[in-house]
Write a structure and sequence with these properties.
heterodimer, A: mainly alpha, 2 strands, B: mainly alpha, 69% helix, flat
Chain lengths: 173, 245
């Protein structure tokens, strides 16, 4: 019974966190030159990774970002968003897995987020033939800002939420 | 906040069952990447766009088109200038403005991007979210994945509404004359409210019998009239693009 309860809890956790990521993505949107946008997505993705670990982060981050693209009228980027933000959360979660208060680890996690998001969009949009390298590179500064701000904001959010909701760590798996 | 892009309508594509629609979307997306001729690129771009106009009407289809026009404009303006290797087409004072290869690259990207966008919009604007999930279940999407996806779609508008309420109440705390809302407290409050819902939602799932059955049965979707014809058309329309490949 405990396992079954755990499955229901995991599904609820992933679904609600994915919805949080999608809402964060859709709440603030600044259009970018190649038809994408800059959003608060990475703050929610980083929060999911810090608070719930790599696997919840992977599914919730990827799914939430992809749903936001599908619903928000940018369906062509959904698959790329799923891969990029999923991997971003997975790596951040793995880095801060043992100690989510270690400053060097948090800095490394933030750097990884910046590399994965800016490099991931640059590489995948070019690889999938949805733009050319010279246009995709125009997105890089925006993505660097978005992911760096997101990683810091996600950490602030994590410490704020942890204070407000003490049982947060019980939901981790 | 609306979690559905569905537009109510009575077009032939609205009446299609979601399963042939899913296959059709997949075929359009795949074939867009297989085009090797100018005619093929044009057809891959125009056919799903024409279907979109027929299915959801001029206004909605135009809105979808407008969303991508700035991107197309940037691609047309800058890509040929950056891809200048090959046979020159336009020159000004010895400076190559565009080559055949540059024009081909930009046409290929616009065709793929357009075809992918129109095909996905065609699905999302003519099928409800729950229909799409039921369709995916019919193609053996795991029950837990389908459940999580449908829960995400239910929670997005709920959390969106909650965020508007939090934002409005937070804006009242600002000094008189100041506009906007404090972003960090607002998103923190939203996240706390969302996380508080997790144990309650899990309990609600348990109460509804989640986990009592070893394997959840696949709920059969009734076959509408002309189901076989829909499958045929759903496959033939995108596959017809291969004629002009």
């Amino acid at each position: 019974m405990a396992d079954r309860n755990r499955t229901a809890l995991r599904i609820s956790l992933v679904a609600i966190m994915a919805a949080v990521v999608a809402v964060f993505t859709m709440v603030i949107r600044i259009p970018s030159p190649i038809g994408g946008y800059i959003s608060l997505c990475d703050a929610a993705v980083s929060f999911a990774a810090y608070a719930f670990g790599p696997f919840t982060g992977l599914i919730a981050g990827g799914l939430g970002a992809a749903f936001a693209d599908l619903i928000g009228g940018f369906p062509q980027w959904a698959l790329i968003s799923f891969i990029v933000h999923g991997i971003e959360a997975l790596l951040m979660g793995l880095i801060v897995r043992k100690d989510s208060t270690s400053i060097p680890m948090l800095i490394i996690a933030a750097l990884i987020a910046v590399i994965v998001v800016s490099g991931g969009y640059l590489m995948l949009t070019t690889l999938f033939g949805l733009t050319v390298f010279s246009e995709a590179i125009l997105e890089v500064p925006g993505n660097i800002v978005q992911s760096a701000v997101g990683a810091v904001l996600g950490l602030v959010l994590y410490s704020g939420v942890r204070k407000a909701y003490r049982q947060l760590d019980d939901l981790r798996w | 906040m609306n979690a559905s892009s569905y537009i109510h309508g009575d077009s032939f594509y609205h009446r299609f069952d979601v399963r042939p629609k899913l296959i059709s979307t997949l075929l359009f997306a795949a074939i867009a990447f297989a085009m090797r001729s100018w005619a093929g690129l044009a057809a891959a771009f125009l056919l799903p766009l024409a279907l979109l106009f027929v299915a959801v009407g001029t206004r909605e289809a135009w809105r979808c088109l407008l969303r991508l026009l700035p991107l197309f404009a940037i691609l047309v303006l800058f890509t040929p200038l950056q891809e200048r290797g090959g046979t020159p087409l336009f020159e000004a004072g010895g400076f190559v403005i565009a080559t055949e290869e540059g024009i081909w690259t930009v046409a290929r990207i616009i065709s793929r991007l357009g075809a992918l966008s129109w095909a996905l919009m065609l699905l999302l604007l003519t099928a409800r979210n729950e229909e799409i999930i039921r369709g995916l279940r019919a193609f053996h999407m795991p029950y837990n994945a389908a459940l999580a996806a449908s829960m995400v779609l239910r929670f997005i508008p709920h959390l969106g509404l909650l965020f508007s309420e939090i934002r409005d109440s937070m804006s009242l705390r600002l000094d008189e004359g100041r506009r906007g809302y404090p972003m960090l407290p607002s998103i923190t409050a939203l996240t706390v409210a969302a996380i508080r819902m997790i144990p309650e939602t899990a309990a609600a799932l348990e109460e509804r019998g989640f986990g009592r059955m070893a394997k959840m049965p696949n709920e059969p979707i009734p076959r509408p009239r002309g189901y076989s014809l829909q499958w045929l058309l759903g496959a033939i329309i995108p596959l017809s693009l291969l004629i002009v490949r």
